[in-house]
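Key result, reporting period 2: structure in, sequence out.
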């Protein structure tokens, strides 16, 4: 600094002024430039902020309808699934696709079509209780998640149908919409990541059948169309070549543990797929017209087996499951009677299990079928009771001797007050109507004890026996566990005497050890 001061001291005044002037203007220039850069920076950061918030907006919202973006939807779904896991409850996904929306676009143009989609989104937002997540997946497809199981999902489907029933008026044009719905449940139908895909697969199965309805997911719906076609082809061959088999699961008297009946459960042995369970192929068979042949085979085979067991001295009913498609077939009861005659089986020794939802169908064909079954003297059981919507009046007039409490209630007995009170009111109502009550899906001793306490008449489930081959069941019931492929306790026939629990006698629960398979 000193040397600079000495140098400056030697400068002439003009030089000093000149240098100062230059310095000032340089400083001003730099300052101006800095201000400019700062201003620009400000403007830049503001526009960057705008851009990011716009981007955020884009990633968080659907540009057209303002509904959640996929990212936000996935996050909301993950949160809801976590809550459901913690509370031990379930979630339902609905996938909906507007029917023939292409026509709206073609007739009125895309701008108007867009306005319709915006209005659909507004209506979907009105669903009560509020959806956990709602998005427009693409085009005219929407996905939403509601808490609860199949009942809550179907209630939501109904609400959406009501909301869409009111025409949407755009630019003075009233537009009437309909939609196809698919429903899938978490955790019942698999991992959370698959939930929306499953609901979409269910929706597509509705579309293939003409749309305007809803379907609940079944595993076969995930198969591609080609796989489904292959499955139908193979199943048809299996029916022709006799690769179907009936397994039998006993029903036992709740008080005496005596075997009262054996329910025939269908299995398909496929060389490539292994053993296929009915949940996978029954609905496919129904949709492709194979159910008549399959159902006829089941009845004939069950009657043949009942005759063989009678021959061996085993007296019990044999139960078959009858699907809606079969019951609606005018020739069904004739065929059934022919089978009974062929194998010399008393009609009262054959049970037809018909699901509550089919039994409650208020059509002339189902009324007639029930009437004829009753006249023939066949034992009728209402299956999956509690899952459909029964009218007491219809139930009273139905010639059914037995109600089967659905296994979903049995499964929840030990953890849910609601399941307990439903099961117990089913028992009371059935007894008032003089019907017997069977509980299916009994897996634990706790469930069994509660059901016995409620007064349930018969029990069925893995606790007693899994479905098994006719030979295994014969050996098991005769008390030859060594030859049974499954390890069960000794014959229920030989060592279990009826006893009156109400009289305070020692309960069989104390005296008979159970060995589970
Ligand atoms: P379903 O009539 O409700 O039959 C009871 C189902 O519960 C059977 O499944 C049985 O294996 C299973 N199960 C039995 N005990 C227990 C238990 O303790 N715990 C659990 N978790 N499950 C138990 P499956 O054999 O897979 O049959 C499924 C459904 O397929 C049946 O439900 C019935 O609706 C249908 N089905 C089976 N066979 C036939 C048939 O011949 N014709 C028709 N139309 N439907 C059939
Ligand atoms: Ca059944
Ligand atoms: Ca059932």
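The corresponding designed sequence is given below.
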């Amino acid at each position: 600094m000193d040397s600079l001061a000495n140098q400056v001291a030697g400068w002439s005044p003009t030089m000093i002024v000149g240098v100062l002037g230059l310095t000032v203007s340089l400083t001003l220039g730099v300052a101006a430039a800095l201000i400019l850069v700062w201003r620009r920076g400000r403007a830049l950061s503001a526009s960057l902020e705008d851009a990011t918030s716009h981007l955020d907006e884009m990633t968080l919202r659907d540009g057209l309808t303002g509904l959640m973006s996929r990212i936000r939807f996935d996050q909301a779904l993950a949160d809801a699934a976590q809550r459901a896991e913690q509370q031990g409850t379930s979630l339902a996904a609905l996938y909906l696709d507007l029917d023939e929306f292409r026509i709206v676009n073609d007739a009125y143009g895309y701008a108007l079509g867009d306005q319709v989609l915006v209005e659909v989104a507004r209506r979907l937002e009105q669903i009560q209780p509020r959806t956990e997540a709602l998005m427009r997946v693409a085009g005219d497809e929407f996905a939403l998640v509601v808490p609860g199981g199949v009942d809550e999902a179907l209630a939501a489907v109904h609400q959406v149908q009501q909301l869409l029933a009111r025409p949407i008026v755009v630019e003075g044009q009233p537009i009437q919409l309909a939609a196809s719905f698919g429903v899938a449940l978490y955790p019942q139908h698999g991992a959370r990541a698959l939930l929306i895909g499953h609901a979409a697969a269910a929706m597509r199965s509705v579309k293939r059948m003409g749309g305007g309805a809803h379907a609940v997911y079944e595993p076969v719906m995930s198969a591609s169309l080609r796989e489904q076609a292959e499955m139908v082809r193979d199943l048809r061959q299996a029916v022709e070549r006799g690769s179907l088999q009936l397994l039998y699961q006993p029903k036992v008297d709740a008080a005496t543990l005596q075997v009262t009946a054996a329910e025939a459960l269908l299995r398909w042995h496929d060389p490539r797929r292994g053993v296929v369970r009915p949940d996978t192929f029954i609905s496919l068979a129904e949709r492709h017209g194979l159910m008549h042949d399959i159902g006829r085979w089941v009845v004939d085979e069950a009657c043949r087996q009942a005759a063989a067991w009678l021959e061996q001295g085993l007296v019990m009913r044999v139960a078959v499951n009858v699907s809606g498609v079969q019951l609606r077939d005018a020739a069904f009861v004739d065929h059934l009677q022919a089978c009974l005659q062929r194998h010399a089986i008393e009609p009262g020794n054959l049970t037809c299990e018909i699901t509550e939802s089919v039994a409650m169908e208020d059509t002339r064909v189902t009324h007639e079928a029930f009437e004829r079954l009753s006249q023939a003297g066949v034992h009728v059981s209402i299956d999956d009771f509690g899952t459909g919507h029964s009218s007491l009046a219809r139930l009273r007039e139905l010639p059914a001797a037995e109600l089967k409490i659905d296994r979903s209630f049995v499964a929840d007995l030990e953890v849910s007050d609601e399941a307990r009170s439903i099961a117990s009111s089913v028992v009371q109502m059935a007894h008032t109507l003089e019907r017997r009550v069977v509980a299916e899906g009994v897996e634990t001793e706790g469930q069994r004890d509660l059901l016995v306490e409620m007064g349930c008449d018969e029990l069925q489930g893995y606790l007693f026996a899994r479905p098994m081959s006719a030979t295994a069941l014969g050996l098991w019931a005769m008390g030859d566990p060594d030859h049974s492929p499954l390890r069960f306790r000794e014959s229920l026939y030989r060592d279990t005497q009826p006893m009156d629990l109400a009289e305070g006698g020692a309960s069989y629960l104390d005296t008979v050890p159970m060995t589970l398979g």
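DSSP finds 21 helices and 16 strands in the chain. The CA atoms of residues 240 and 293 lie 9 Å apart. This case is discussed further under Risks and Mitigation.
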